[in-house]
Structures are given as structure tokens and as C-alpha cells.
## 1
Amino acid sequence: MDGPVVWMVFEAVGEEEDAVEESMDEHVETLKVEDGIEVKEVDRDDVKQMEDPHPGLEEGYSTVVEVTAGFDGFDTAIQTVLNYGPTYVQIQGPDQYNIGLGEAQEAMQKVASTMHQYAQMGAGGVLVSNTEET
């Protein structure tokens, strides 16, 4: 892969230990078969029991998985982050990466399309850049 190498952290929380483990396994396995992605390393924490993992759940289970992957382009990396929702990402390399106008346009359009989908689902809307009078 000639594109960026990205380290991603995924977290899962749920009521049942098996469901947390299985959902994270499925998440990583689905990522492994995506076109334009080469999963290089997977480091997974054991599923742990937690108190108050999030509002409305008094007790649950949690796990964290770290994935390092290479991408065929910056646009594929952006699409993967949008589709898979890691909690944290860090570009590990290369130190220099040249991106052409077409690849940059494709990456930006993927972000715009995803944001538009969220707005249509009621998760957001059109942002107004300046609501104060000048």
C-alpha cells in the first residue's frame, strides 16, 4: 500500500460480555476484508466488567482494540474513519505523503456526503457560520 498508515482505537461497551466481544470481532473482521486496506496489526484488550459505563447502563462490559492499517490512499483512510468510527486515530506514516487534487477532492466529498447523511437522519443540520450582527 502506498497510502498512509493509520493507528486506530476502537471501543465497545454493552450489557453482555459475549455481545461486546462478538461485535468487536465482527468489526475488525469486516475491516480486514475491505478493498484498499491492509490490516497490519491488531491488539485487543480483554473484555472487562465495568460500573456505569455510560448513562442508562449501571453495569456492563467493555473492550478496546487497537488496529494499525495501511491504506491505498488518503481518501480510503478518510472513508474508513467515517464508516468504522474509531475513538482515536493517529497517522503513523509516511513522514511525507503527496496527495493529488483528485484524491483530495474525493476525500472531502466523502466527508461532505457523510455529514449530509447525518443531517438527513436528524443527527445534525446545516451550520450557520455567523449568526451575530456585525
## 2
Amino acid sequence: MAKNNSRETFRKVITSDELIAQINTENIKLMERFLKNFATKRSPKSVVVYRSNLNIFFVWNLLYNDNIHFTEIKKYHLMDFFDFGVTELQWSPNRYAMMHSTLSSFSTFIETFFDEKYESFRNLLPKIEKLPKDVVRKKSVFTKEELDKLMDWLGEIDKPQEQCLLAIMMASGARASELVRFTTTMIDENHTAFEGLFLETTEEMQVKGRGTQGKKILRYIIKDLFLPYYKKWLPIREKIMKENGKEHDYIFIRSDGEPAQVTTTRGWIEKWDTVLDKHLYFHSIRHFWTTYLLSLGLEKEFVQELQDWSSDTLVNLYNDATMKDRKWKNLDKLAQAMEQEK
């Protein structure tokens, strides 16, 4: 099979001047102090590389981690960032190691020179394992046909709740932490938007965003992708709840009727890999949702508004369509020219 050269030369940009301008000003101050000191010991080229790496981290922190101060970063935040770099930005082990070194040097600088101001801060990068040289986790890109086959398999093994989970993942593009916060009171099949094609939640949901509390937005769910599986799951859910004497309105539950946690749903999707030829993770379906809507011809601005993204940077980031996947409306002109050559 011929290699897809566009994958071999993959490059996705997360930063922009607009997003860099929104980075937490205290983080910018620390970064500039670090780079000023770093420049006294390293070449100008190295300073440029380190600045670029720090911009990537802090834009990720802005988009995915509430733009928190660097000294508040925890190990699991760093784990999320490096997982993002490997799965979404497709870093090689060398690129991974360079980012690891940049953040470690930055952390050591803060620990050494700002110890009186940030007494409890420690360099956490030694806790983050580097990638082995011969291991690169490939990004998973799913088509609707592949996910439909997975849905059918879940039906065959009688997993209606997992079908409902996959359906809302495909239909909403919601994050893992948001999926378990959907409730039955949020879903009303008559509460629709955009010519009845989307269910609009009856109340806002808290999602990640700027500030420590994040932000609240209405969620939009592609009605026909989700509703059949939701209706199938609902009576089974009610039976489990009644048998266990539980009363709450979370859609997804454990076998004892308690609300499902992210770890619960993560355990479900880990089993789905057994029938797939590639690894499925929550963000891969968020990519599917974006790519699917764009492939149908929906405007980039509309997709951005559905997720309440502050810019179209995330639309570009989540769009997995390659140049060959896009529909080029003027190709008929080339076809006509070639016809005339005959």
C-alpha cells in the first residue's frame, strides 16, 4: 500500500498571535524573565525554539486548562499536555523530548530563583516519562462507517448504555468530563434548534474555559444520531435505578445505579478497541464530530459557534480532513480543459 505523504509530513499549528495575546499575563512575565536569563547562556536560535515551545504550552493551557498560572500546574495537567502533543500534534520522540526539556528548564528556573515567592513549587517534569525512541502513538482518524460498525457491535453484545455513550460522543463533540454530566433533565426531544436538526440542552453545562470556574454553555446534539439510542437506554436505566434505590438524573450510571465517572466511561471505551483496527480515545471522536460536520458542507463559523469556541483555531485543529478529502468546486474546469486536449 502506498504511503500517504501528507501523514508523513504532518504539521498542525496550535498557536496564533490572537491566542498568544490571551495567555495569562503572569505566565508571560515568568516566561520573559526565563528567556532573558536563558539568552545569556544559549544561542539566539535556541532562544527562538524555547520561546516557540513555551508559546505552544501556554496556548494549550489557555485552550484546555483554564489559563491557570504555571505554578499551579499539576502532574496530571502535564500528562494531558504531553498526551495532546503525541495524539493531536503527532510529536516524534525527539519533538517530545525537546518540549520536555524546555518545560523542565523553565520549571527549574522558577524553583531556583522564585523560591521565596512560590515556596511550594517544584519541577514536576522528572515525573513525566519520556517517549521511548521507537514508540510513537499514531493519531486515530475515524470515519462514520467505522463508528457505525462499532455501534452495531455494541448492539450485538447487548450494551445499550455504551451505545448511548458512543451516540452522544458522535453527536455532540463533548469532552470526556462533560459526557458524564449530561442529565435526563437536559434532554427534551421537542427542545430543538437549527431547523430541528439539533437537540439544544434545556440548561447550560459547565465546560472548560477561561478562569478557574470555566464557563457555561448550551450543548447541541445532532438529534437523529443520538435520540434512538437514548430512548433505547432510558427504560433500562430506570429499571437499574429502581432496583438499586437510586434517585438522580445523570444519564450514564454504574451497575449499582450511582452516577458514572470519567474513569467508568474510560473503562468502557477501552474495550471497544477489540473490534477496531486503531485506538479509540475520547478526543478522537471530538475530531470525528468536527470533521464530519465540515465534510457535509457546514460552515466553519457554524461549527465554531456550536462549541462556543473563541476562535476558529480549534476548528482547524479538530478537522482531520486532508487536502484530498476536501471537495474542490472548480476541478470541473481542469476536467473540461483535459477533455479539450483529447
## 3
Amino acid sequence: MTLEGEYVPTPTKWVRDQVETYERTGGKEAGTLLDTGLPVIIVTTRGNKSGKIRKFALMRVEHGGEYALVASLGGAPKHPVWYYNLVADPKAVTIQDGPEPFLVEVREVSGAEKAAWWERAVAAFPNYEQYQAKTERQIPVFVASRAS
């Protein structure tokens, strides 16, 4: 399942290359973040202003068939652009975790649910703790569930 529309690759070459390689090989290649060996997923959204298709890799944080999408932007003071895409259209999202992408619905979590997902995210990618420590904003966490 893919989103229809014009795809505009990210200007960041290594991200663009990773997305292309991951998709072309069904996740057999480019399935980790650079040289860390930590697994990633490919997330596809629709741009909230342009309506164009956007793709990026995020750390793979999966639990019980659902995925956490952590809007860390490396601890920057602002949310990543894709955060606004998810807020604007939480049903226009796909995840690729292996050979085929699938449609998901996302929701931003808070309270105890966010704490549980944050713990899972930090276990998968410890740098998230450092990212939160270096920014005043609360890093948002979305949970993505397969669309019915």
C-alpha cells in the first residue's frame, strides 16, 4: 500500500539514498541508521502544505505490531517538518518495515502511554535521552497502528 501523489525526495543526500535503497531492496539493504547497526523503518507522509509525498527513515521502535514515531530532530528546538504532516493528516501515512509498505493511522500520545513508548524508544535508540536533555521542548511521540 502506497500513498498516491508526486514524490519529492528530501534534499539531504544520505537520507534520500537510504530511502531509495531500502525501498528498492525491500529492506534487505539500508535497513540500519548509517553505521550504527540499529534498525530503521521508512515512513511516508503527505506534505501538509504542498500535498506532495515525503519519505524518511526513523528508528524502528515496534511493540505489539505498533510503532513509535519519535519527533526528536536530534534535540533541535523545533519539531521536524514531518511532525506537522502527521498532525495534519494522521491517516495519510505508510510504514515500510521489510519488503512492503503498509497503511497506518497515527496518534500523538501523552501521559503514561507516552512514558511507556518513550522507554521503548530509548531502549531502541539511547540517544533519544540526550536529545530530550538538550531541548526545552517535549519531544512528541506518535503511535502508528495498522489501518483497518
## 4
Amino acid sequence: MMMPSIFGENLFDNFMEGFGFPAFPDVDKALYGKHAKNLMKTDVKETENGYVVDIDLPGFKKEEIEMQLSDGYLTVSAAKGLDKEEQNEKGSYVRRERYSGSMSRSFYVGEHVTEEDIHPRYENGILTFSIPKEEKQSIEEKKHYIAIEG
């Protein structure tokens, strides 16, 4: 039986795992495990004044994404659900691969960061925001003179 090409290579995910076949190298699985498709892929770039963070959130609407800053930790959460009653024009779905559920990821940004410092922008499925670096406070060098007797 020929399978339509829309099924791709993931039709039998986890089905063949217990048969002792050699594993094929898969970068995402090596880095993130078998649930790699449900993680927020993130790039962090250091700039002169701080860090720029890009998080891939394809398929989410801006309203489905939340950011929360608490005790120096910035948590990005996204949640979406697919209507179970949805049907296509000709009947029910044969396969559904789009993600539905919730995910979150936390980053330690430091106690110096406030909500006003973070300016998020969501465009083309990518959440981008910047985090300022903590300003180093200059340490005053105090000279301690020692009295010389004599």
C-alpha cells in the first residue's frame, strides 16, 4: 500500500523503538529528547548593552503567549487548544501534527530587570525581546593611610 507523502517520516514515531533496529541520528532528539517538537527553540545573542532573545512559537497567536517576571526569573508561556469537534469539508482528519497544549520556559535575567526593561515583539511566529545587562557599579578605591610613628 502506498502512503501519501504528507505523512513524512514521522508516521510511526515510537512504533519501531522496541525492535532493536539501529537508531538514526537525529539532532533534535539528541539535544532535546523525543519531545523536541514541543519545546520552545530559543536563540540568545549577546550585544553591547544586553541580550536579544528569539523564541520560535509557530502557530501561536499573540493572545496565546504570556510573559511573567518574578524574583529575577522571566517565564514565557504559550498555550493553545484545537477544537475536538473540528472536521474538514469532507469528513474527519486522518492525521493531525499541529501542536496543541501548553509549554513554558524560564530564564534567569537578574534582579535588576523590571517589566519596563523588556519590550517583546511577536512577528512571523517568533517572539523577540531584549534584556539589559546589569550595570557594573564602579567600586570607589579608598586609600587607607597608615600612620608612621617616630
